[in-house]
Design a protein that fits this description.
alpha/beta; 17 strands; disordered N terminus; binds 2-acetamido-2-deoxy-beta-D-glucopyranose; repeat
Length: 277
């Protein structure tokens, strides 16, 4: 009986759903709000602060200059490539210019920091020319939940202000040559933390991620971690993926419990850890 019901449901969906969509009025009515003028001009200023250079995104085979179609005309910036706005307020909430051939730098006066409602920022696979991640980022974009600056040529210390992003749930700063983590940030809300190839040699591993009980995925490949990796990280309740490869001076051990009663997948991979059962 249950199987029959399921089959019938699938039949209904596959036969009638496309028709329903084709005539749905919601496909044709624009969102209730257009983008705000000050956010539109902030986006255009941001675009103009870079030059487009395909070699800036050489590591990304899918790269193309997303901001090239952004124009100061009557267009709604919410419909521009890489932009997402809130349905209700019309504020820009997501900026994804990953792999957009951007070459240049971002400083604290960048018009990026006028997009106060941003929840998601992805500038991965561009070339910010060894500039630092601006300190103001942690203070001026308080709604950020997703920050991705991987493969983007940032250098220097990761600003401590990043701990002030109290809604941050994923942070990817991987593969920026010369980026350093000098002090342990306090990440209470993070679920995903990827810092591959960030220089963490001055961090005392025992103190790291003391308050990060939400972590699901932690990747610290090639971070030059030194010393003993704390066993408590392995006991974080939600951790599913931990990558610690290529930390040649890192040691540690953990207990790997497989009792069949847990439905979590744990995959711990490291070249230098001692595994104990
Ligand atoms: C940033 O966080 C620090 C340490 O938690 C705190 O002292 C400071 O007041 C915060 N700054 C802002 C602007 O939220
Ligand atoms: C960061 O962005 C890149 C490019 O879009 C993507 O490949 C990567 O998976 C993202 N990282 C996270 C943690 O989502
Ligand atoms: C963890 O949280 C406690 C209490 O909020 C705080 O005292 C401590 O400094 C935090 N640890 C780290 C490493 O941030
Ligand atoms: C490992 O530690 C030793 C001794 O402190 C140091 O000389 C060496 O450079 C370190 N190696 C790496 C890859 O960090």
């Amino acid at each position: 009986m249950a199987a029959y019901t399921h089959f019938f449901f699938v039949f209904l969906l596959t036969n009638f759903l496309p028709t329903t969509f084709a005539f749905s009025p919601t496909n044709h009515i624009p969102p209730p709000y257009n983008c705000h003028d000050h956010e539109k001009s902030a986006l255009l200023q941001f675009k103009d602060s870079f030059i487009i250079d395909s070699s800036a995104s050489a590591d990304d085979p899918a790269a193309y200059p997303k901001s090239e179609g952004w124009k100061l005309d009557g267009s709604d910036c919410c419909s521009w490539d890489g932009i997402e706005c809130d349905d209700i307020t019309g504020h820009v909430i997501s900026l994804d210019l990953s792999g957009s051939c951007l070459s240049g730098s971002i400083d604290s006066s960048s018009s990026l920091f006028q997009l106060l409602h941003l929840r998601s920022l992805n500038l991965a696979f561009n070339d910010f020319s060894h500039s630092s991640i601006p300190f103001v980022l942690g203070h001026l974009l308080p709604n950020l939940a997703h920050l991705n600056l991987s493969y983007s040529g940032f250098s220097g210390p990761i600003p401590s202000s990043i701990s002030n992003l109290s809604k941050l749930s994923s942070l990817d700063l991987s593969s920026n040559l010369g980026l350093e983590l000098k002090t342990n940030p306090d990440f209470k809300t993070l679920q995903v933390l990827h810092l591959d190839h960030v220089d963490m040699s001055s961090i005392v591993p025992n103190d790291i991620l003391a308050n990060s009980s939400s972590l699901v995925s932690l990747s610290l490949v090639g971070c030059d971690l030194q010393g003993v990796f704390p066993a408590r990280i392995f006991q974080l309740p939600k951790l599913e993926v931990l990558l610690l490869d290529n930390n040649y001076n890192l040691t540690g051990y953990f207990f790997f419990i497989m009792d069949g009663s847990s439905d979590q997948t744990h995959s711990f991979i490291s070249s230098q850890l001692t595994f104990k059962r």
